[in-house]
Write a structure and sequence with these properties.
about 80% helix; about 120 residues; mainly alpha; about 0% strand; Four Helix Bundle (Hemerythrin (Met), subunit A)
Length: about 120
């Protein structure tokens, strides 16, 4: 679990003085939306809906890249590519790894965004 600091530094260089507030807002939105997208992805996997698996994995990949969550993006891309190839076999393990990565990231992101820890 790591967050690429260069992504956040890029926001700082573009936005300037208000960057930390912007980053906190972006991280908060990511923390709110990602569990919803992951739940939809898990449901699509259970339903063997290749198109929706690809769509939700693509969404996770993009959102993760925007906050510097490279491992999340990599895992989501693996799922997206498998769906694009028409195969969902064995993706349950990838989904579990994605969920575990998010759980670890969420702790760091909550602290970075100034949010209280989740019990």
């Amino acid at each position: 679990m790591t967050i690429d600091p260069s992504v956040l530094d890029e926001y700082r260089s573009v936005i300037g003085n208000d960057a930390d507030a912007f980053i906190a807002e972006v991280l908060t939105i990511y923390l709110e939306n990602t569990p919803l997208v992951m739940a939809r992805l898990r449901q699509a996997l259970a339903q063997r809906d290749v198109k929706m698996v690809g769509r939700h994995a693509h969404s996770l990949k993009g959102g993760s890249l925007s906050v510097g969550a490279g491992e999340m993006a990599r895992l989501a891309e693996m799922i997206e590519e498998a769906a694009r190839g028409g195969s969902l076999n064995g993706l349950g393990e990838n989904m579990t790894a994605l969920e575990q990565e998010f759980d670890a990231l969420a702790v760091t992101m909550r602290a970075m965004a100034g949010l209280p820890p989740v019990d």
